[in-house]
Design goal:
The structure is a homodimer.
Chain A (H helix, E strand, L loop, with lengths): L1 E6 L2 E6 L9 E10 L2 H19 L18 E8 L17 E4 L2 E2 L6 E2 L13 E5 L3 E3 L6 H4 L2 H14 L7 E4 L3 H12 L5 E4 L3 H9 L4 E3 L6 H9 L8 E4 L6 H8 L5 E4 L7 E3 L1 H7 L2 E4 L5 H13 L8 E5 L4 H10 L5 E4 L8 E2 L3
Parallel strand pairs in A: 10-11, 10-13, 11-12, 13-14, 14-16, 17-18
Antiparallel strand pairs in A: 1-2, 3-4, 3-8, 3-18, 4-5, 5-9, 6-7, 17-19
Chain lengths: 359, 359
């Protein structure tokens, strides 16, 4: 089968051996897989990532010096189910022919395999890969699989908003309108949060943020997002906003600690891979909280698929392009530039170069 | 009147003009003033501090290049009250001859003056200084004024514990057993928190931590406090502890982010004056929260004085020495070494060199 393989910090299209299901696995054919910012981060900074993962006791970290397999935002079609010997423990909630999504973990003994960050297991950048059938969720009939492919990044947004505990009456500030920032705006809009004030250097992404419901979106080179919030909030600026950091580059935390008002909670959803410098004294005198967040739980993942299918949250603005395997490396380069695309889906029969597409 | 003045990063004993009360002020004679870790920090790093204060919009920051006046943990005797022209707005809750404490602010138009960090107003390192009478709390009859002098640092501990929301059933980890770490242990003990696991390099301070109720106190050079917590907590280690950082030196936040378990909240009470480097990725993958805390509110300050007076919280272990004005510089040097003393009280008639004392 064909796959886009990460090799020496590059993406190479290669022919790989077909995966062999174990009992309880679903063999899946890729329909579409979103390219995530953390795929870009990983291809560039995998060594940082595996160092930290090993240090924190995570098992099944991968070796970035060897080939590895990216892609954790997939939707696929079940080709085969390798029945578990224990159908009570592992009932198969899906059938051959179903379109499915799942949390990006493959159940193995003794530890889960993080799909999309593995040397050994293919994931969403391969024509075929293995999922744990019991973790699969059927894509509701009638839902465009390209929308279903947004379940994973939208679940990250939902988890971040859930952790923040934000409720009507409190303002939200969203720093950065990449896929995660836009996902946050979509959920904050669905929750009725007002005002939502966002910042983003890319004009294209600012327009998408507005389309998703942000009330004010500024170019941070012209006005800081905190100044914009003060301007928009009026007397509401007496109460600090919840700030959502969705950029993840060095210096961003310190800049926010410098500019946010006292008592601000900063939800850190951006994934900064490098060491970063802050001034703790800023945090102390303003009693700032930095609350780092990660991923989602299985309930949030399922709730996200349901909300997308029901139209409770609007994801159409998130997908801006499609590409086949041969154009994946180009798609990464395009996404690094940030101004042309937000989310590009890799599709097995996609075009040879990144091509604009709307849902 | 005599005063210990901060001048060019040194403490100089000098004769200064007597303070002139304005309406609403209480003129107070110093009885005792604790030396705070932030006094040491300020004398060494005042430039950092005033930079940050100015950047965050605080008014009435001081000029560290000119003489300034330290000391915010005082107890004093009211010598005179300059009646306010508006007794309804500012009733005097104290009378001449009363022993008083107060939050370290002097009410002035247009902004509060932070006493203990001012070029213009004397504070607890001077024989006489001004307080806002309406902010003064009378020391209950019979309470040793040296215990009352602990109201301010103990209020910092109470505020930090309040912000953490810790309740019985959750373990506490206290990093550093200086005055703030010990204050935290005293309050956590009063709240029935168990286990309280602390770390501190100084043998003297470890013994005080145990005396104040810590269940396990380790030397971090022998065992990390997180390892000690795991060892002590047993199955309780399934739930993350609340970690209280009371050291405030560069590198401590990163070390904690590296060692604490997932979902840990770190209450940052230590005041690190320098820029500091963290690895945000550690925070992300473990969903750590860094919650910076500062000072206390007036209710917490009053509740602290009451709790000390009622014996609800045990502060006797906190004071280890006394010194007169002439020995203040020596006392700073002794406290920097950390192994001999925890809290030294400056007393106008104190000895010429830091002298051990127990409450």
């Amino acid at each position: 089968v064909r796959a886009v393989v990460a090799r020496n910090h590059q993406l190479i299209v290669d022919e790989v051996l077909p995966p062999t299901p174990s009992p309880g696995d679903a063999l899946v054919a890729l329909r579409a897989c979103g390219i995530c910012g953390s795929d870009l981060h990983t291809l560039r900074h995998a060594e940082h990532m595996t160092d930290v993962a090993a240090a924190t006791g995570l098992e099944n970290t991968f070796d970035p010096a060897a080939d590895y397999h990216l892609g954790h935002e997939w939707v696929g079609e079940v080709l085969d189910l390798a029945e578990s010997p224990d159908p009570v423990v592992v009932p198969a909630p899906v059938a051959v022919g179903d379109l499915v999504v799942s949390v990006p973990y493959l159940v193995r003994d003794p530890a889960f395999v993080p799909l999309g960050f593995s040397n050994d297991y293919y994931a969403g950048y391969a024509e075929q890969f293995l999922l744990t059938a019991a973790l699969c969720l059927r894509v509701p009939n009638g839902l465009d699989p390209r929308r279903a492919a947004l379940t994973e990044p939208m679940a990250v947004g939902l988890h971040t908003v859930n952790r923040s505990g934000i409720a009507a009456g409190t303002a939200a500030v969203v720093v950065g309108c990449g896929p995660i920032g836009l996902a946050l705006i979509a959920w904050l809009t669905a929750r009725g949060i007002e005002p939502i004030v966002a910042s983003e250097p890319s004009e294209r992404r600012r327009a998408l943020a507005t389309a998703l419901g942000a009330h004010e979106v500024v170019d941070p080179r012209s006005e800081s997002v905190v100044d914009a919030w003060r301007r928009v909030a009026g007397l509401g600026a007496m109460q600090p906003p919840v700030v959502f950091e969705a950029v993840g580059i060095p210096g961003m935390l310190d800049e926010l600690m410098f500019t946010v008002p006292s008592q601000t909670r900063v939800m850190v959803a951006g994934v900064c891979m490098q060491p970063d410098t802050i001034r703790p004294l800023l945090g102390v005198v303003k009693e700032i909280s930095l609350e780092f967040v990660f991923a989602y739980d299985t309930d949030e993942f399922a709730a996200t698929l349901r909300a997308i299918a029901e139209g409770d949250v609007d994801v159409s603005a998130l997908v801006t392009g499609t590409v086949g395997f041969d154009g994946a490396a180009d798609a990464f380069a395009t996404l690094e530039r940030a101004d042309e695309h937000v989310k590009i889906l890799i599709e097995p029969d996609g075009p040879a170069a990144p091509t604009p597409m709307e849902l």
